[in-house]
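ugh finaly. both done.
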Amino acid sequence: MSERDAKGWFFEPARPIRVEGGIHVRSRRGSIGERWWSRRFIDVLERVCDKGRLSRGRAYARSGQVMHVDIAPGLVTARVQGSRPEPYDVTIGITAYDSEQWRALTGRLAARALYRAKLLAGEMPPEIEEVFGEAGLPLFPGERGLDMACSCPDWGFPCKHLSAVLYVLAESFDDDPFLVLAWRGMAKDALLDALRAAGPAESSTVPSTGPSGHERPEGPEGPKSGPASLLDVTDPPFADRMDAFYEPAVSPARLRDRSGLPSTPPDLLLRALEPPAVKARHIPILDLLRPAYRTLAEEDGG
């Protein structure tokens, strides 16, 4: 495939030197990146890169020209074998968040029980991107969010060597989504430890009385915390309620009153069910359905 030099002239690029033991991406044709987070990263790449160099970058990634990739907070370093004997050095920088910013992010994630549970189970919930956005700290870089450099003489930017590393990086994210967070400055083990230590957010606690004014049940460590529920009732010993055993413990009027219930996310069903192995243009079908569910809920008044 022809390429352009700095003056705009077309030329036939030299064939790269074959590498023994290089990193081969699994995808042999079409797009690279299978999970929603790696596709989000690829979307950024494909918006900023020349299509010709992207094609050459994919070929490099598939033929194993990328020799080494290391991910550290804020910086990816790699070596790519081109047509010259000496491999090229590639660096890709991103803003790594500091401890205070990660403390705020961890608190937001811990406040959402479903996201916290999924992360502790090793999953990356799609809604995590919204949590980062609410904190004003984007999870994925925008079109100008990557500081990239390569030691090759190619004036094009990003060059095919950078493109190859970005594709290898995207497939690494497929295998371990926590690498996305590690690049932003938070290692997997440190994040999971922080989520376990944080527990439910303190902001979700309520007074120790239920909506009817009765005391909320207490455990061995005092009143239970968490959002109030219509079914929070005092549970006296059985011997104390034998005379009224068949009487309802909760007033039917309270069961009809739904004002105290938490709002239900419009995509709750999508979160609860096992995701089908269906994709549209390499994008998981659930990632396409979620915004549609939310739009329908907004049009229906929530």
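ok and the 2nd:
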Amino acid sequence: MSATSPNLPDLSQVTSLDQLYGVFEELSMEGGWHRPAGPALWPEPRKTLLPHVWHYAEIKGVLDVAGRLVDHTQADRRNVTLTNPAEGNVYPTVRTMVAAYQMIKPGENALAHHHTPAALRIILEGSGTCTVVEGDRVEMRPGDVLLTPSWTWHEHSAAADADDCYWVDILDVPLIHLLEPMFFEKYEDVVGHDGLQPDPRDLDASPIAYRWTDSLARLEAQTEAPEHGMAEQEIELTTDGGPAMPTIALHVQQSSAGFASPTMRTTANSLYTVIEGSGEALVDGEVLRWERGDIIAVPAWRPYSFTVREDAYLVRASDEPVYGALGLLRTEKL
């Protein structure tokens, strides 16, 4: 015997579309010809999240105040998350990624944890702070890009005589929210050791660390401009010849004062971190002025271009690997 909804009318008595739509609602479905929420397909990507720029000069002051008011007993990390200002958005910076600024003070430890989202750090300033990933301890130096792959134990510690250290975090958390395999554990709850990985190995060179000095040397050795023309020189930071992480690609770009790029658009979402220099990004008609330490959000399929005022280095984090793996990566010059 089949079960039916007690509120379902006798279908033989349904004689109008309005009555039929009532049946749809009761059965939690809709007709392909009748979609109250609008069409399920559209000609090109919709404009949902917004182009935006966050200014490090402003946010650094906020972090300094937090440094006085928030310690690591109150939160795993002292960071501020950059939420895209689109109406109704509650978390992502762009569709698949979230960015944050983080700060650690001398003598502090941000205890170890791991999670399924992948993360990376772009160091802005400060010396004397290290990150430990799966037992490997590397110093965090300005300009460096450090990886925390999915489900790796990681912590951050500052020496007693360290500077205040500031960096950018970029994670694929919004993608994990969408796909739903979110897992998170604290080291102290699983392993113990007061939340710190014991006996870390000190390394200067590591697969998780892209040193700024190495990036500069690679850029200087470039003899051809990138085909897309969005910068004068560009290198990709890779892991085993592929993207830095399965969900995030990293490119370091260099352009001289006066450089003006063509306009392009791509289905990939991008977050640009300014390591040095200043200029403007024109994103879908909106002028975003940027300088050292700023983060620029370029959502998918928005026309954008760059104009450089002062010699500039930028790190572009994008979700190109995701779109490429799915056959959905499309890029064009305009």
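summary for the 2nd one i guess: The domain at 52-209 is CATH 2.60.120.10 (Jelly Rolls).
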